[in-house]
Input
Amino acid sequence: MADLLTLIYRLNEAPGARSLYEQLNEAFSDSADYITERLGTDTEGELILCYLRSLCSSVKLNYLLRSNNEGEISIHLDHYRGNDLDEGDFNRCKQAICQGFAVLCKRGSTEGIILNLEQYHGRTVQSPITENVLQGPMSAFTENLDINTALIRQQLRSSKLKLWEYRIGEESHTRIAIYSYSDKTDETMLTQLKEKIKGIRTESLQDSGQLLRLLLSSKRMKLFPLAVSTERPDRASTELMAGKAVIIVDGSPFALSVPSVYTDFWHSPEDKYVNGYVAYFLLTLRFLAMLANLFLPALYVALTSVNVDVNRLEISLAASASREGVPYPVFVETLLMLIIIDFITEAGLRLPKTISSTVTMVGGVVLGQAIIQANIVSHLLVIITAATAITNFIVVDYQMGLVQRILKYFIMIGATIAGLLGVVFCFACLIFYLSCLESFGSPYLTSLRPKKGAS
Output
């Protein structure tokens, strides 16, 4: 402890250079929460503690500021000294203060001692918000990287779980963690991922989604998501056991799993908690919902306006009767209904939860009934659009659901131009496009088997 005080009093002093204390005061001159306090009652050497009140722990500060003798100061300084940041120059000390540390210096010194007085500001561990838990752990990631690391280690209590940390952002200096599991993760992919992260140049980084865009910035924009995003630690641990690498950004409650293939976006974390036959059934149900969501509107347009002769006579007569009095072509009325459904969906997502259900009810029931009574669309189309909206919510991954909402418009345009042939052509183009995609070196298309969790 005495050695630490000796180190403080021997801090470099340069009579001709500006002191660290003066430089810090200038750098934080317009920051109302920047505080400087004299430590102890002994004026010899005049120790100054510099910190941001909003980021430092008030409890830790009180211990230091109430210390009146050398022994008490020495004990607290030795306890709060940072592990990897002990002493540094102006740039290092300035960045440490922005991260929640405090800097102890003398008025004439050009260096300071960095103390770990950081206080965590954020949520505690709660239940997942965007991924409903039907069975399994109820915990979700938070905005604190250390807490998220602890949640993953609670799932995988093994020394084979490896962790690397980096800082990205010239201004934000955001911490990023890469997790992998030894003997399962492809070392070549892991090395390439590390090099890509080291090569990122940006001013600030706030979210894992922004990091993914930076990682893929050298490639053309991809319509389909190339990394699974999750806020559930159990799903992240499952991905690690499957040979994936997991990336978490400090300040973001979502983890990225790479590489991710097409079928990864259709698996639910609950699949590994149920019987294998049930998992296959649920996976098949999701794929049927995906096909219905993409092709139901297009098939309606093709079979009622272009390839009418393909239907049985009874079906054609029923479709014609339902469209009696409708003033718009089939394509226009279908496009109108799909856009209205997307309006209602976005309104339900963006509005506060207390009123979103009311808006959905008004939009889905009242507006739909009014449209039918006004003879703007047919009764059959209302059934088609309702089924399309429901099947979109079966999609496990939100980003994949957005992609489907976009694709159904293009497939419907193909059906309007060439009927069933246009639908088949769009499907072939979709398969070809998916076969050309890669996610961090892995082909995007893979088998449809349910995932196996960690034993």
In short: The CA atoms of residues 266 and 396 lie 6 Å apart. The longest helix spans residues 276-306.
